[in-house]
Amino acid sequence: MKLSVGIFFGGFFAALGVLLFLVAFGTDYWLLATEIGSCSEAPESAGGEKATFHHEGFFWRCWFSGNVGDNNASMWKFWYTNQSPSKNCTHAYLSPFPLLRDEHNSTSYDSAIIYRGFWTVLMLLGVLTVVVASFLIICAAPFASHILYKAGGGIFIIAGVLFSLVVVMYVIWVQAMADLENYTHMRKMDCPDFALYVRYGWSFMLAPIGVFFSLLAGMLFLLVGRAIYLHSD
């Protein structure tokens, strides 16, 4: 009975972790940025204060124009139904916010791309690892194999660690590597009333929750594997 409960909750937490990882991986809302100022690309017909909204993820970096409204820190401006129908997108790997491939010197751009390259590799490894772990657990269930349960649990823990590194590296990117302060200073030279508001998006927020469920599922499956091994003796 206890073993069945452990398997059930392990599978439930694992499914949540996998789902959250895949959503965080596949959606482009790790970073949300709002640029406000008279130099914004927003059309003149846009009411209120003009702004350009940026959001990026693993695959794409997109931006669209509009007006700020009452709250310039609101995340709802980035919701699908609130976005402008005319939206520009580029590959996030080659042009992560706030860098553009043709607008920065080669040294800073190359350093940023190398850093993002490591982040990309960790992200892909995390996704691959969690998929492999899920496959092992699915194979373990019909045969009650303690080896597969232990292997799947261990790999779920590895996936959680990898995604933890992904989250930490992205925080370092936003806080240090992206050099948002210098970007803001450069934009203010051409547009004195320029202001930049940056926040983490819901894709980023889902990743740590997925880490928690992945680690929890991994520990449960390790315990399940140990219990099956002890009962088989």
Please give a structural write-up.
There is one protein chain. The protein is built from five helices and five strands; from the N terminus they run H-E-E-E-E-H-H-H-E-H. It starts with a helix and ends with a helix. With 233 residues, it is α+β, with helices and mostly antiparallel strands. The mean pLDDT is 84. It has a single domain, classed as Butyryl-CoA Dehydrogenase, subunit A, domain 3.
Per-chain topology:
Layout: H1 2-26, E1 31-36, E2 50-56, E3 60-67, E4 88-91, H2 106-143, H3 146-177, H4 180-190, E5 195-200, H5 202-232
Antiparallel strand pairs: 1-2, 1-5, 2-3, 3-4
Helix pairs in contact: 1-2, 1-5, 2-3, 3-5
Question: What key phrases describe this protein's structure?
Answer:
233 residues, alpha+beta, Butyryl-CoA Dehydrogenase, subunit A, domain 3, five-stranded antiparallel β-sheet, 5 helices, 13% strand, elongated
